[in-house]
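Fold it.
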Amino acid sequence: MTLLSVLFVTQVYPLLWLLLYSLKTNEEILSGRFFSLPAVVQWHNYVNAMQGGKYFKYLWNSVIVTSITMAAVIVLSTMVAYAITRFRWRYGQTVMTVFLVGMMIPLQSTLLPLMVMFKHIGILNTHLSLILPYIAFSTPIAVFILSGFMKSIPYELEESAVMDGASVYRTFRSIIVPISLPPIMTVCILTFITIWNEYILAATFISSERLKTLPFGIYSFVSQYSVNYGAIGAFLVLGALPVILIYFLLSERITKGMVAGAVKG
C-alpha cells in the first residue's frame, strides 16, 4: 500500500503542479510557492495558448499523422503476425528475427540517412516524411505483441473455416482479427502514445510552420512566449491532455491485451 501511495504521488505531483502553474501570473510563479492556489485564476493563459500558439493547427497535424500511422501499423502488423505464426513456412522464424532486430535500432542513428533519402525523393518537409519512419519503428513491437497472442489461437478454428470453404483472407478477416482485438487495441493505444509524443523526427524533417505537430509546436510556443510562464504552462497542459485522456480511458484495455499475449503466447 505504501509503495502504491508513493507511486501515485510521484505520478500525480507533476500534473498537479503543472495545472496550478498554468493558472497563475508570472509573479505568483516566481514567488516559489509551488502548491499555492492562484489569487485570481488566469484563464487567459489558455486563450493565449490556443490562439497565439496555434494550438488547433498543431493538434490537427498530430491527429493526421497519428491516425494514418496507427491505421497502417495495425493493418501491416496483423497481417505479418498472422503470416509468421499461422503459416508453416521455412523462413517464418527468420522474418520474426528481422522484426525483433528492428526493435533494437536506435531512432537517432537513422536521422541522417533518412534525411538524405527523403531529400532525394522529394518528401522532406511533408507529413509523409514523418509517417513512413513512424510506421517502420512502430511495426516491430506491434508484430511482437500480436504474434505472441496469435500463437495461442487453436488451429482447429482455421481448419473448420477451411472445411466450410473460407479462403485465407476470409479466415483472417472473420476469425483471426476478431479474436485478436485485445492485443490489437493494446498496439493501437501504445502506438498512439508513442507517435503523439514524438519530437526528434518532427524537429528534424519538418521546417514549415503549417506542418508542425503538437510536440514540435510546443517547443516553438515556448521560444515565442519565453517570458509568459503561465501561457507556457497552459500550452503544456493542453499538449498533454489528449494522451492523458486516452490512457486513462483505455488503460484497462492495454493491461488486458498485454496479459492476453503473455499468458496465451
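The first helix runs from residue 2 to 21.
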